[in-house]
Write a structure and sequence with these properties.
This protein is α/β, with parallel strands linked by helices. It has helices at 72-85, 104-114, 129-139, 153-160, 165-178, 198-206, 234-241, 314-318, 323-335, 360-363; strands at 7-9, 21-23, 29-30, 36-37, 39-43, 90-94, 120-124, 143-147, 183-188, 211-215, 246-249, 259-265, 274-279, 292-295, 300-302, 311-312. Helix 3 (129-139) links the parallel strand 7 (120-124) and strand 8. It binds guanosine-5'-triphosphate, S-adenosylmethionine and iron/sulfur cluster (2 copies). The site of guanosine-5'-triphosphate (GTP) has 16 residues, from strand 6, strand 7 and strand 9.
């Protein structure tokens, strides 16, 4: 019995228990709740050259051995399977820090040559980007998101535990100059550390045609230091920005994007300065519209950022499985995607939320 977009119910009405269904062979990356993942996020490495307090511990993590990590050819093959068999329509390269991968340009070139029209973006801390931006653009990277939490060297070093602010700013300038547009900047606000800087960060971004997004801190840090009271909420971020700007809902469709966008103006002035996004994963979750499928650096499918279940594809790839077998396993992994936040309900601050063993850097944010 079929129940709409690609589900087959096993011996019960389509309106029955959605757990009692399996994905239809040949369908895309559907889940039991009717969502279809079309946005693939691949982590290129678990390594990073920063140690952001909300992500990594000061001492780093025990990195994967080289032979545990997807090779360029394996990444290219997974993208091919995703696009040609599973309905993937956009690709994000992330990590860890994707720029630390020596073969990054080759990976992008290989993907681009097979998929001329695929949007390929990258989320990066921009350390070392200044030297590589032009090569990345030539290789076929479409656009870039840079993480930057502060414009003050001391605060930047406090948050990232590294003194690389100048490199990040140079990387952003290079991305703008190269046309890796739109350049988006992600800032996680941490109470008492950089939250007071929110209006200055927005001023800076508006003056450069950068789309700034403020991100609610999620409980995905290796140090397990997250608290609901300690995080800066979307409402608090809006209040901080309203001390200098007027925010109005952006009329453009959100289209499943994590960021809710606002038009930005000066009080009493109708002139539009630009937009700002707020990514409220904790207080205003967007799981019902989620279109994401993730693959970790060691080739495991994570159907949700907060999944505690992982499905290995690397073993299959290396056991010379054919593309159809890999696609089937990937499809099955996505079918059991949790409803929200790795559970059957939203609530990163709820009593039954269990933080995944992996930190954000080891998942692929
Ligand atoms: N809850 C949740 N948060 C996510 C997810 N993906 C990304 N985020 C959050 O959104 C932030 C920004 O992610 P980016 O990698 O810049 O990409 P994006 O904003 O999702 O995508 P674009 O706007 O298309 O560039 C991350 O730092 C996370 O905090 C997700 O699948 N679930
Ligand atoms: C894990 S990083 C990987 C890519 C790259 N290293 C970077 O920082 O952009 C991707 C994004 O996750 C965000 N992030 C990391 N830990 C987070 C947390 N605990 N809560 C919310 N966002 C987090 C970062 O700010 C960054 O924008
Ligand atoms: S957020 Fe990105 S830059 Fe910061 S420690 Fe995590 S992976 Fe590295
Ligand atoms: S928490 Fe999971 S379901 Fe919700 S938006 Fe993120 S990946 Fe999607």
């Amino acid at each position: 019995m079929e129940s709409g977009s690609g589900r087959v119910a096993l011996g019960m009405p389509a309106t029955g228990n959605p757990d009692n269904t399996v994905p239809r062979p040949g369908a895309g990356l559907l889940d039991r709740f009717g969502r279809q993942a079309t946005d693939l996020r691949i982590s290129l490495t678990d390594k990073c050259n920063l140690r952001c307090t909300y992500c990594m511990p000061a001492e780093g993590l025990s990195w994967l051995a080289k032979n545990q990590v997807l090779t360029a050819a394996e990444i290219t093959r997974l993208v091919r399977i995703g696009v040609s068999r599973l309905g993937v329509r956009e690709l994000r390269l992330t990590g860890g820090e994707p720029l630390v991968r020596a073969d990054l340009v080759e990976i992008i070139s290989a993907i681009r040559s097979e998929h001329p029209g695929l949007p390929v973006s990258m989320t990066t801390n921009a350390v070392g980007l200044a030297k590589k931006a032009a090569a990345l653009k030539i290789a076929g990277l479409t656009r870039i998101n840079v993480s930057l939490d502060s414009l003050h060297p001391g605060t930047f070093a406090q948050l990232t535990r590294r003194p690389f602010l100048d490199q990040v700013l140079a990387g952003i300038d290079a991305a703008l100059a190269t046309g890796l547009a739109p350049v988006k900047v992600n800032a996680v606000l941490m109470r008492g550390v950089n939250d007071a800087e929110a209006p200055d960060l927005l001023e800076w971004a508006l003056s450069r045609q950068i789309e700034l997004r403020f991100i609610e801190q999620m409980p995905l840090d290796a140090d397990h230091g997250w608290t609901r009271d300690g995080m800066v909420t979307a409402a608090q971020t809006k209040a901080l920005l309203s001390t200098r700007f007027e925010l109005a809902p952006d009329p453009r469709r959100r289209d499943g994007a994590p960021a809710e966008r606002f038009e930005v103006r000066r009080p009493g002035d109708a002139g539009l300065l630009g937009t700002v996004g707020i990514i409220a994963s904790v207080t205003e979750p967007f799981c019902a519209d989620c279109r994401r499928t993730r693959i970790t650096a060691e080739g495991k499918v994570m159907s949700c950022l907060f999944s505690r279940e992982e499905t290995d594809l690397l073993g299959l790839l290396r056991a010379t499985a054919d593309d159809a077998e890999v696609a089937d396993r990937w499809r099955a992994a996505m079918w059991s995607k949790p409803k929200a936040h790795g559970m059957d309900h939203t609530g990163l601050d709820s009593a039954d939320y269990v933080q995944p063993d992996r930190s954000m850097s080891a998942i692929g944010g």
